[in-house]
Each structure stands twice: as structure tokens, then as C-alpha cells.
């Protein structure tokens, strides 16, 4: 019994360490029940309205702080000129010229557009990170880290499912 308990504990600890190290947090029932942020935002909808207006994956990420699997977003390979907006409220968030390949599996940017995003502390997995959310609807977008390229040195590591891309007019 002692051996089994130690095995289960070490397996759970290893999974948490792997998730924290890889910056990947799967969508779970517990995450889905955490609810939307308690702050107030310009765009508000009931939970039923969010479910109706978003895909299940968008809903899990934007409204319940889930994380898509790395390398699963087609936006990783989006290199055209244009703008990346919030999939929840369509607010423009990132200009394409700030996108770079971070080799993490998620679309990454070195700066958001002015007054587009807000941040708050995220202490999930016992690690302190900075969560990034849409300033207009509060949708969870991803996290920002201080290991990005010049000129900011920041890496806004976003969930592709939380974004939509609009190409620049030709």
C-alpha cells in the first residue's frame, strides 16, 4: 500500500512538473468549473450565450482558462500581414509584424496592440506566471513570459483557438 501511494504521488508530481515546464495545462472538469474572471468587462454575456457563440474549444480556453495542445493551431503557420483578434469579442489584439516563431507550439508575439490586453497573476501548478486576457471581454488568451526577442524581450504565448486572424487588405 505504501509503495502504491508513493507511486501515485510521484506520478502526479511528475505530471504537474511536466505541465509547468512545458507551459501546457490541459482542459479539465476542474478548470471548466473555475468560472469566468470576477472583473467587469465591456463585453459581457451569460454562460449560455458564451457557449452558443464559441466553439467548445474556444469556450474551454477563453471562458475557463484551458490551454490547447501545443502545435495544434493553424495560426502557428500564419505569416501573412494582418491582425489577430479575440475570438470572443473580435477586439484587435496583435499586429502580425509582432508575431515570431517561439518554437513552443503556440502563436507568440513580442507586443500586443495598445490597450488590447490586460494581465493578472496565475499561480496554477504552484508556479507564478502572468496570465494575459482580452481587456474587453476578459477571455483568457495565454501567458506572457520575459524570454522573448527584442525590442520588448517579452513572449506573449497565446492559444491559437482564442484568436482569429484577419489578413490585411491587398
TrEMBL record:
One of its GO terms (cellular component) is cytoplasm. PANTHER family: METHIONINE SULFOXIDE REDUCTASE, PEPTIDE-METHIONINE (R)-S-OXIDE REDUCTASE. It catalyses: L-methionyl-[protein] + [thioredoxin]-disulfide + H2O = L-methionyl-(R)-S-oxide-[protein] + [thioredoxin]-dithiol. It comes from Paraburkholderia panacisoli. Its EC number is 1.8.4.12. GO terms for molecular function: peptide-methionine (R)-S-oxide reductase activity. Coiled coil: none annotated. Residues 47-168 form the MsrB domain. Keywords: Oxidoreductase, Signal. It is an enzyme of class 1 (oxidoreductase). Residues 1-29 form the signal peptide. The keyword Endoplasmic reticulum does not apply. This is peptide-methionine (R)-S-oxide reductase. One of its GO terms (biological process) is response to oxidative stress.
Amino acid at each position: 500500500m505504501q509503495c502504491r501511494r508513493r507511486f501515485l504521488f510521484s506520478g502526479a508530481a511528475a505530471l504537474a512538473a511536466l505541465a509547468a515546464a512545458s507551459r501546457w495545462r490541459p482542459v479539465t472538469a476542474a478548470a471548466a468549473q473555475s468560472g469566468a474572471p470576477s472583473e467587469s468587462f465591456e463585453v459581457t454575456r451569460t454562460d449560455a450565450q458564451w457557449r452558443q457563440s464559441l466553439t467548445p474549444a474556444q469556450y474551454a480556453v477563453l471562458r475557463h482558462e484551458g490551454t490547447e495542445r501545443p502545435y495544434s493551431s493553424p495560426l502557428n503557420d500564419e505569416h501573412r500581414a494582418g491582425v489577430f483578434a479575440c475570438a470572443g469579442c473580435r477586439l484587435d489584439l496583435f499586429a502580425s509584424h509582432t508575431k515570431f516563431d517561439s518554437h513552443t507550439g503556440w502563436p507568440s508575439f513580442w507586443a500586443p496592440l495598445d490597450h488590447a490586453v490586460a494581465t493578472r497573476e496565475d499561480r496554477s501548478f504552484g508556479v507564478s506566471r502572468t496570465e494575459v486576457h482580452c481587456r474587453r471581454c476578459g477571455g483568457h488568451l495565454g501567458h506572457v513570459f520575459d524570454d522573448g526577442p527584442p525590442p520588448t524581450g517579452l513572449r506573449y504565448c497565446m492559444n491559437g483557438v482564442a484568436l482569429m486572424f484577419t489578413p490585411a487588405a491587398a
